[in-house]
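chain below, 540 aa
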Amino acid sequence: MSSWYDGQRPLTLAILAMGGEGGGVLADWVVAVAEQAGYFAQTTSVPGVAQRTGSTVYYVELFPPTPVGTESREAAGTRRTEPILSVFPTPGEVDVVIASELMEAGRAVQRGFATPDRTTLITSTHRVYSINERMALGDGRVDNEALLSAARTGSKRLISAEFMAMAEDARSVISAALFGALAGSGALPFTREQFERPIRDFGKGVDQSLKAFAGGFAAAARPADPSRTSQPVELTLTPRPLSAQERKAREEKRRNEIAATDPGALVGRKLRPLAADVADLPAAARSMILHGLVRTAVYQNPAYARRYLERVGKFAAVDPDTDGAARLTTEGARHLALWMCYQDTIQVAQQKIRQHRMSRIRAEARAEPDQLIQVREYLHPQIDEITDTLPTWLGATLRRSTAFQRLVRKVTHKGMIVNTSSITGNTALSVMARMRPLRPRSLRFVREQAAIEEWMARALSVAAVDADLACEIVECQRVLKGYGATYEHGSDSFAELMSAAEELAGKPDAAGRLARLQAAALADEDGRTLATELGVTTGL
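prediction:
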């Protein structure tokens, strides 16, 4: 072995982790292992912007001790007693990259930290969606398979597993599981016992950390699957609008997953008479319709679910492919359920106080049965959200009232904090949730039902001559989402799409052109992309 002054390079590691995942502890453990083995070790970190808009990069360099039998450093003609180590990773010069999440692995490849000639890439395959993915009006998620394919291509060796699930099962943190994967990979010249020693010395959650470590170690030591190979791909981390073909493929996959669910388990006693009527509708759409029945009944009541079923029946009556995929009926059932269950203050309150939600929060917080927890909701109600919940005449009057607008702004401009787990907070939300019987007389309910009927009429009127265009008209409902300014922008885009659909009816490739307009409407909130595409697609 050459001594450090003969030009030997250090072992280099880059750890990409988000806040709260223990990336700093993981880096310290690696340093502790190396120093106990006589190595020179150094760790530095470059923090990200926020927990999900950027991650912290921890960089570790390890330099082996001078081998026994070599000349002393002084005898070699140097006064330096320690090597100079770098404080940040250099693209193309990183031996091991550890990513706490699949997108972080993609970033490592994109930034050149992981390279196919040198790097062992260890990544958890779970996803924590980035801000750009969450903000996208459409489906902005980066495809997991594309990320994994790029990780395989961009590394010498890829070790990927659900390390987060291992950590949660052990009631530990992901850093312990990733540390075990590093030990099991054999990328560093230390024994398992040497790796475990810093965990024991850490003194906190030792048993849980060791359990997570063991899971990560076993996953990394498992032989790689030779069938999991891929061709080089160009990794694009910026979400892009899906093409019509990609969207249809994803919807088909989702429908197959839904169809695997036992439909009988979806409906309760009050809905069984309605569920029986579903048998008269196209087979390919039945699972979707049953889900819609449950959703609308929970949202309002069985009578509202019957209204939903009657509307779906109108789509089935004009569907030209009832014995096949029945796309018009299936998509009609899906988007009807989404629109009929629009989000209002009653729905928000109902979701906040669900027992299942409170149980999930306790489980995520790992609260013991005798421990108390507090759940605080950060709310910022707008004027429209308040008036839309009121009876039509009162809501319309208050919406026009300048004095009422000033009052609401004064009370809510800084937002509101409601303690759902307190008697006062839970009671307030429960009272709001129990206002469901008043919803059919609310300002927004009346407005939404009229819009739904108009949308359906437009789709049904063209179904006989152009079923594909009718399906695209149905799917235009995708742009209606969110609340406040987002909902307003979506409503404006929806109106533009409906006008374009009327203009395109009877023209060649009308369905494809409307699909492109949908993608444009979901590309941004200000409507610039849609305005440009409207000029190209319709000549308007």
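The longest strand covers residues 56-63. The chain has four domains: 4-221, 242-341, 354-443, 444-540.
thats it, cya
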